[in-house]
Amino acid sequence: MTLGSILHDMWDIFVKFYIGEGLLVTGVGYTLLLSAIAVFFGTILGSLLAVGKMSRIKPLQYIITAFVEIMRGTPALLQLYIAYFIVPMMLTNLNPTPIACVAIGLTLNSAAYVSEIIRSGINAVDKGQTEAARALGLTSRTTMTKVVMPQAVRNILPALGNEFITIIKETSLASNFFVGELMTTYAIIKGVTFNTVPTLIDIGIIYFVMTFTLSKLIGVAERRMKAGA
Amino acid sequence: MDVYIKGFLIACQGIPTTVWVSLIAIVIGAAFGLLLALCSQTKSKILQVLAKIYVDVVRGTPMLVQALIMAYGVPWLLQSWGTGFKWANLVIPAIIVCGCNSAAYMSEIIRSGIQAVDKGQMEAARSLGMSHGMAMKLIIIPQAIRVILPAFANEFVTLIKETSVLGYVGVIEILRRGQLWNASSFETFPAYIGVALAYMILTIPLSKIINGYERKMARRESAR
Hints:
The complex is a heterodimer of chains A (229) and B (224).
Chain A: H1 3-20, H2 23-54, H3 58-73, H4 76-90, H5 98-123, H6 127-135, H7 140-170, H8 184-193, H9 196-228
Helix pairs in contact in A: 1-9, 2-3, 2-5, 2-7, 3-5, 4-5, 5-7, 6-7, 7-9, 8-9
Chain B: H1 2-12, H2 15-41, H3 45-60, H4 63-80, H5 91-116, H6 119-127, H7 132-162, H8 174-185, H9 188-223
Helix pairs in contact in B: 1-8, 1-9, 2-3, 2-5, 2-7, 3-5, 4-5, 5-7, 6-7, 7-9, 8-9
């Protein structure tokens, strides 16, 4: 196999399967859909977890800490296996599809990471800000929403963008359940052509284009935010 | 309950493989990552660009893709040249891929650690007559290590979890053990709970130690 013939095969596979059979659109579509769902609901759930952990209710704190530690202490692949097994058992009458199970697993995973991002973003805001706001007579709620949060968001948003990129790469694990995202196309094409390496390189390039564009966009947004500050 | 204990014990049989692969990979990653970080700091534009491309590509693609290319792609390619190459043991490509993967992340950690050291340190060392290399080795890197250490340990924790995808390329680590047992006994839940516990006894104590170290460092910093 020369470099030329590998490039040739890569191009052939790309044109025939990714463009011709539309695997590029469906693969990238499912990957982005899964990641977007996981990050969106992960952010909502993660914010709730962060608020709960900063509340004064001890049992709530312990439960959230345990959840976050477990999710951050075990591999995402294992969590997907467990979600794939347990979600259909819990939601028997809804008959969840594999992609729904995977989406739930990824959401819970990203919620744990996002809650830590939000918590550290809030903690990174100088304590003097809270003290000054409180001394000026603002209630603790107003202090949080009007003084601390707007500053914390500036720390949190770039980290959330990175979480999105991490999740895009993590959706590749979902190929194990054949949900149709980008890595699933590897199994499909390999089954037809037995040409593994050019397919893998094609997939690598598509992932790279997705994550690289995203990280550039995040960089631009970050710079805008700094300029606006 | 017995079945849960059995699941845990079976998952634990995978711990040595996971730990060995992660340990060797983190050593490779640290050495190669340091090299990449130094390349991105040199004045040579070519080295800078090469290091940047490597880091971007490795951080931009899933490790699963990298592992499949290394484990199946490399022998396929070499065999097509008529060399009859075969990995003697599938752990070898797994370790290489983990090492090369973590090197990209390590290089960023090391780079930010070096940049975190005050610029005056380098200026002072240079004005005392040290060469650039000497100042780097004796002044900058020892200080950078203190910043890098927690991130380094975090990278190790991440790596332990990442090795779970190596089951795809024929390495029988913790998760694979659990899956194999699940396939023969159909005890899905005990198998996966056991796997989760096995990972947690590795990762959670380690991250607790890191937290303690970070807090100690922060206290020392504020005492100054």
